[in-house]
Design goal:
Radius of gyration of chain A: 22 Å
Number of strands of chain A: 0
Order of helices and strands of chain B: HHHHEEHHEE
Helix content of chain B: 25-40%
Helix content of chain A: over 70%
Oligomer: heterodimer
Distance between the termini of chain A: 35 Å
Number of helices of chain A: 18
Strand content of chain B: 5-15%
Strand content of chain A: under 5%
């Protein structure tokens, strides 16, 4: 195929066999289930993060309760955010993209629904176990071994539905979003099974556990979430700004470099490991400059001078903000990997700032952008103006809260991290004095979970209103139409 | 790239390269790491497996998520001031973790590194920090942001005889009159674990700094905290045996003897 024919996401109605309505309706149940669950988990994750911040400032708060101790709440919050929110949202968005870009019905919606329910049940059990003290001690891999098989099985159910949908796609060139979704689907299965085997199944010796843990976390963030978040970015930005994607080759370059270089990293410079591992990690992380630049340039040129003229729908606004956060977080990751910076910033809030920006900024914002586009089309596939189903004021409020929360939290933690790193260098500053110096910035950063909690509540309200409105409209329709729709589903 | 199998193979190859480099390679290199001879040629190779109570304490450390604030990895002096801060005598190396059931080197320092906590604190000092870090008699500790771990302790009425394990506290923060603070078994295990953390003997991959007179042989022979490094209270130099410096600044003759809240409070 020639390059020029690929880049535009083709209009969906072109398919002779399947109408858009049928396509959208095919995945309604599992995808809405995934999205609703994800939003509830994000609310819980933000509440746990808020509780964590409070505990940093008032040490006696809930001190008599083992369940709400800082380390457990932190681990549970991370787990709820990554496994409760990011993964299901990414899977839902990915399945939808595979349906739409491949012009195929979702394969096995019942299987996917079972997978979604199983996944959420497993995460609930995992978070509960962590709060009860059953965490594994591996960062972002805290859920105990007993729930790992259920997690993996549920993931495979959903993933296989995705692959079957992909297999039944209409013949024709693939669009970059499809590579990214497929990449994400495989990547998580590989890294999760490796981590489960080598950390929980038959644990490796000593510091190798930490190595596997670091490798897993880096792959989860940089490659899996990177792929999963960039898939909707590559779909929605060209589509909603009504411009063809600037370059297919740049997208391919970004994809392969992210897979190759993004999967090398996460080992701190001074780690108690052979030096070649830290060096390899440094090389890989620095090379991620290439995908970052390629994606940023590609999409910047794609939007071009259309930027001010955009109608500012929520999907595009969230997606663009998410993309900007991805670029900033990626650039910071590269900077932090350089020894001259990393020696100052390792083990400080600097790294936390970067991870939070990546998860709450990039992953959450792009997922919400996609959900704002997808959910009304699933809930009411026949509606002519699906975007109007959202309450506009609530959408704007949600965006404002998320942007303010993520932005404030990021800047505050970044300042705290740099101060902490610089002050730490002088051994004459006692450690407590160094930490005391970060307190003001830390207080400010507590606004991030607060704003995210409020924002997610606003989103959930909006989502409930949307579903309720669709149901009411469905009832008003003649029974014959309702019956037909049921068949379509 | 319009071909599903090509996409899959490319992804699989990328994944495999990363996996071989960061998982399989290191596993082949260090998967069967054994205790090593020390530079000082101590009779025992380093490290030894921890005693039972400390091993239980490691599980408490894991379950409470201590690693979210405390690292256990000391960087070499060219990468950071960890050694200059007295957090260790040498950098951490892979050998130090051989017997860790769960390796928890951590990634964020909201509290000091604990790789060599045993060189700075004894179990009683750890317990005092768990009850309330701000009560530790040290100017800096008053501003510590570490949470209190009250749930690791029981506050109970003194029975006929005071408990042998009760925690000494400063009079002004003492429990209600006639009560004592007794660490639960989990707290005692955790304290034993933290007080046992030390990455001390020089190894061939972590040699003594050039010019330094070897070695730590004598210190490794005993479980006592070395002289003058007791962080609880630097002013009360202990005699280097098992004497405990209490948070209140009093010297207990024996850590096993309980000091509750005496009715006759204020005199040490």
């Amino acid at each position: 195929m020639s390059v020029t024919e690929a880049p535009v996401p083709a209009p969906i109605a072109a398919s002779p066999q399947l109408s858009r309505t049928e396509l959208e309706a095919s995945g309604a149940a599992p995808l809405l289930c995934l999205f609703a669950g994800a939003a509830l988990w994000l609310l819980l994750a933000s509440l746990l993060a808020l509780l964590d911040s409070v505990k940093l400032h008032s040490a006696a708060f809930l001190a008599s309760s083992p369940m709400w101790t800082y380390g457990r709440v932190h681990a549970a919050g991370d787990t709820a955010l990554l496994y409760g929110f990011c993964l299901p949202a990414a899977l839902g968005v990915g399945l939808w993209l595979l349906c739409r870009l491949g012009r195929a019905r979702l394969a096995g919606p019942a299987v996917a629904t079972v997978g979604a329910l199983g996944w959420n049940a497993a995460v609930a059990a995992g978070v509960w176990a962590i709060l009860r003290g059953g965490g594994t001690g591996y960062e972002v891999f805290e859920m105990p071994g007993a729930v790992a098989p259920l997690l993996l099985a549920s993931y495979l159910l959903i993933g296989i539905c995705g692959l079957m949908t992909f297999r039944h796609r209409e013949a024709g060139p693939l669009y970059p979003s499809q590579w990214f979704v497929i990449g994400a689907l495989f990547w998580f299965a590989w890294i999760f099974s490796t981590a489960a085997l080598l950390l929980l199944g038959s644990p490796v010796r000593g510091v190798l556990q930490a190595l596997v843990n670091w490798w897993y976390e880096h792959n989860l963030d940089t490659v899996f979430l990177g792929f999963a978040g960039l898939a909707p970015v590559f779909y929605f930005i060209p589509k909603l700004s009504r411009r063809p994607l600037h370059s297919y080759y740049q997208a391919a370059l970004a994809f392969w470099m992210l897979a190759l270089a993004g999967s090398w990293g996460g080992i701190p410079g001074g780690a108690p490991l052979p030096a070649w591992l830290a060096a390899a990690s440094l090389v890989g992380t620095v090379l991620t400059v290439i995908p970052i630049a390629a994606v940023a340039l590609n999409l910047y040129v794609t939007i071009g001078d259309a930027l001010p003229a955009l109608d500012g729908g929520p999907a595009l606004r969230f997606t663009c903000a998410g993309l900007i956060f991805w670029v900033v977080a990626g650039a910071q990751q590269v900077a932090g990997a350089l020894p001259s910076v990393g020696n100052l910033t390792d083990f400080t809030w600097f790294t936390t700032a970067q991870r939070d920006l990546f998860r709450n900024g990039f992953a959450a914002m792009t997922m919400f952008g996609a959900i704002y586009y997808i959910a009304p089309r699933l809930a009411d596939a026949k509606c002519n103006a699906p975007d109007g189903l959202w309450k506009r004021s609530l959408t704007r409020l949600h965006f404002g809260l998320m942007l303010a929360g993520v932005g404030l939290g990021y800047v505050a933690l970044l300042v705290a991290g740099v101060f902490q790193g610089v002050a730490f260098q002088n051994p004459a500053n006692s450690f407590t004095a160094v930490m005391r110096g970060t307190m003001m910035a830390l207080r400010l950063s507590a606004l991030e979970p607060l704003f995210l909690t409020l924002g997610t509540m606003v989103f959930l309200l909006n989502f409930a209103l949307l579903l309720n409105g669709c149901r009411a409209r469905c009832r008003r329709e003649s029974p014959a139409v309702a019956g037909m729709r049921k068949e379509g589903a | 790239m319009n071909n599903g199998p090509v996409l899959f193979l490319g992804l699989f190859a990328s994944m495999a390269i990363s996996w071989v480099t960061f998982v399989l390679g290191p596993l082949a290199q260090m998967g069967n790491l054994q205790p090593a001879r020390t530079v000082a040629a101590l009779p025992a190779d380093y490290p030894n497996s921890p005693p039972g109570l400390a091993a239980q304490g490691a599980e408490v450390y894991r379950a409470c998520g201590c690693a979210y604030c405390h690292t256990q990895q000391v960087r070499p002096s060219e990468l950071g001031p960890d050694l200059a801060r007295g957090w260790g005598v040498r950098r951490s190396v892979a050998h130090d973790y051989i017997f860790d059931r769960t390796a928890m080197p951590g990634s964020l320092r909201l509290g000091p590194d604990l790789a060599n906590a045993g060189l700075r604190m004894d179990a009683m000092a750890v317990l005092a920090r768990l009850w309330d870090p701000r009560l530790v008699n040290n100017l800096d500790a008053a501003h510590s942001m570490m949470p209190s771990y009250r749930y690791l302790f029981d506050v109970r009425k003194i029975g006929r005889a005071p408990s042998a394990n009760a925690l000494p506290v400063r009079p002004e923060f003492a429990p209600p009159e006639g009560s004592e603070i007794v660490p639960r078994p989990a707290a005692r295990a955790l304290a034993a674990y933290v007080a046992g953390l030390r990455q001390e003997p020089y190894l061939f991959e972590a040699p003594p700094p050039p010019g330094a007179v070897n070695t730590n042989a004598p210190a490794s022979g005993t479980n006592a905290p070395p002289n003058g490094t007791n962080a609880t209270n630097g002013t009360n130099a202990t005699n280097g045996t098992n004497a405990t410096v209490l948070p209140g600044g009093t010297n207990a003759p024996n850590p096993q003897s309980a000091i509750r809240n005496p009715q006759s409070t204020h005199d040490p």
